[in-house]
Amino acid sequence: MIRLAIRLAAADAEIVLAELIELAPSGVEENEMPDGRIEYAVYGAAGELPALPDLEAAAGGALVEIVTSEVADDWDQQWKAFHKPVAIEHCGSRLRVRPPWAEASAAPSQVDLVIDPGQAFGTGAHATTRLCLKMLLALEPRGGCVDLGCGTGVLAIAAAKLGWEPVSALDHELESVAATIDNASANSVTVTAERFDLRRAAAVPAAPLVMANLLLPLLLDLARSGFDPHPPQLMIASGLLIEQADQVAEAFSLSHGLCEQDRRISGEWAALLLASEL
Fold first, then answer.
1. Rounded to two decimals, what is the model's pTM?
2. Could you tell me if 106 and 141 lie in one domain?
3. For residue range 30-51, what is the model confidence (pLDDT) as tens digits?
């Protein structure tokens, strides 16, 4: 088994990640390195990995370091060790996201989510997901919720467990749709999941809450395409570097009257809570 890693500056990460997911749909591991760079890694036999020229092309003009290494026979156990429970807390409310092989928390006041990473992107460990979960904990449920770009379904399932209903999860990748359905079943919640191509859609189905943990180009696509039948009351937008947050806030304010109510920062990343003026 081979591990192929791309290391690059956080400012260039979103461009490479978008292309890498297309080249390696079986899953991408993401790590924040001590020097502030981001590392993306994929695993597979030598002949199964994306071609090196493709990865260099994905990086465009960014300065990247590409490292390949052999993985030990127990790589599957090492992979499990990498995915550890993530705890989120806000004003006494607690939420814990764990893989199936981690024990459930004994704390009765803690909402427990079981998320199997499978072949989809998102385990709750990335800063943008943690920011979204913290914002979600701070909200009082007020009806339905749409999770746009659901990955493994962690945000959608958290919303369902916190009382939002009905919950819909949308993603372009079939692996994400399947992972969300499986994870919702494992958590005994009802989440409708289906394939959705934001770049081809005329509008996004709206609900009182829309969560969009996406890359900047997709968030700007969403601002242009809009919502059907009308903008949500609340929107959580993340997947942003700090310097991109103002651009996204302005785009949704001008196009849909969604004004910034809260902004949270973690490292290089930002999340926005937007609210309708109506």
1. 0.75
2. yes
3. 777 888 888 888 776 666 666 6
